[in-house]
Amino acid sequence: MDSNPDPTDLLEELDLKEYEATALAHLLRAGRTTAPDIAEATGIPKARIYGVLEALADYGFIEVIPGRPKQYQPKSPGEILERAKENRRQEFEDYCREVEGLRSEFLDVFGPLYEQADEDVSPTSELFHVVDVGDPSETETRRLYRIADDAVYVITNSFAYFDSVEPAVSNALDEGIDVSVLFLNPELLPDDNVPRQQEIVERLETDYPEIDFRFSEKVLPWRGTFIDPSMDYDSGLAIFLVEETDVPDYKRQAAITENGSFVAGMKRYFDLIWEYESFS
Fold first, then answer.
1. Could you tell me where the beta strands, DSSP code E, fall in the chain?
2. Is the Cβ–Cβ distance between 250 and 213 less than 8 Å?
3. Which residue in 83, 128, 134 sits closest to 226, CA to CA?
4. How far apart are CA 102 and CA 251, in angstroms?
């Protein structure tokens, strides 16, 4: 990120509209002031400024001070960030309630249609489906952490994508889910990946001591995450990609499987490497 980002651009990262970000940036510089003063200082039309400030107050980013005229005061930057997270969390919870409210009607309408469809469209008829590596695969990985009942297993080179999944990892640990990570021996990593792996390992040791991890002695044929394997072959999900050193990740796809037998096989492989071909 730019070491000197534009304040308005930075505030727009919180999903603020241009005028909202402009007004809040001015308030954070100026402190308590009035709507006409904000309009004059920022160029926001006077016909729009009160609606902009009302929206910022609704978001919880500013306080309205009664008087003649009213004054507006920003919350602290830390409070603004916390309120932005809470607003997004509330939006998500509201959306989940709306979706849940559709459940009965949705299942009544589409359930019979799905059951009557050709068997070829059934997810159980295919061993795998694929998603692009990057945001789509990281979204699927976060989902695995969220839905895991017992355990999550990770096979990785350096866990370079940890930042993307860290909140899901933390939540899983809070729910009592066991997490085990099998890294690649740092001596087998490309030189530019070694510092990243070391950084992630240090973070796990410091922030997540409940995570077990070891280092594979040999290059692993695949990388990925799988959850809840069963030797009865009746549970488990996984996302993974095979090792192809000559193909950059952005050109690749990750495979997703809900096949309990395949996931059980991944667990047996994981256990063998963990027990006999890895070190701590």
1. 33-34, 62-65, 71-74, 129-132, 151-155, 178-184, 212-216, 222-227, 237-242, 253-257, 278-279
2. no
3. 128
4. 38
- HSE-CB at 51 with a 13 A cutoff on CA atoms is 8
Q: Given this model, what pLDDT does residue 157 score?
A: 93
Coil, helix or strand at residue 154: strand
pTM, two decimal places: 0.63
Give the position of tokens 């009035």.
34
3-state class of 163 per DSSP?
Answer: helix
- The pairs formed by 218-222 with CB atoms below 8 angstroms and a separation of 24 or more are 218/185, 218/188, 218/277, 219/184, 219/188, 219/243, 220/155, 220/157, 220/182, 220/184, 220/273, 222/155
Give burial (CB, 10 Å; 0-12/13-18/19+) of 105.
Answer: exposed
Residue 259 is predicted with a pLDDT of 92
Q: Cβ contacts of residue 128 below 8 Å, gap of 6+? A: 255, 256, 257
Compute the half-sphere exposure of residue 234: CA atoms within 13 Å on the CB side of its CA. Answer: 1
- Residue 125 tokens, joined: 């008829």
Tokens read off for 37: 């003063």
Q: In the predicted model, is pLDDT for residue 199 greater than 90?
A: yes
Which pair of tokens denotes residue 274?
């963990």
Rg (alpha carbons) of the chain, rounded to whole number:
25
- 54 C-beta neighbours (distance < 10 Å), count: 14
